[in-house]
Amino acid sequence: QLQLVESGGGLVQPGGSLRLSCTPSGFTLDYYLIGWFRQAPGKEREGVSCIVANSGSTNYADSVKGRFTISRDNAKNTVYLQMNSLNAEDTAVYYCNAAAPFKRYWGQGTQVTVSS
Q: Is the distance from CB of 19 to CB of 82 less than 8 angstroms?
């Protein structure tokens, strides 16, 4: 079964850091656009960051620029989202997405809670 598996969420204090991982099962991330999205309670899902697998080109939402870094480890076929200087507004379920022509996969989501 083709799917994405996320990990790395948890509870962190304001100002802290977390690293999320996104690993596909049953396929490689070559030729995909991989994105991280998040959805807070009562809010719509929003894009956080994305990376083009082959070129390494990245993009970030204004709300996370300078704090979050997306990267890919080709050997591990995994995409990471390093999140620093976290604040309460970053609390959400974070989802990984992989998109290619006629293909789109979502992970199950991982909860990130920023609270003292």
A: yes
Backbone angles phi, psi at 75, to 5 degrees: -65, -35
pLDDT in tens, 33-51: 999 999 999 999 999 999 9
Choose among 65, 60, 56: nearest CA to 48. Answer: 60
Structure tokens at 23: 């690993």
Give the residue from 20, 32, 23 showing the smallest Cα distance to 80: 20
DSSP 89: G
- DSSP character string of 54-70: TT--EEE-TTTTTTEEE
First to last CA, the chain: 39
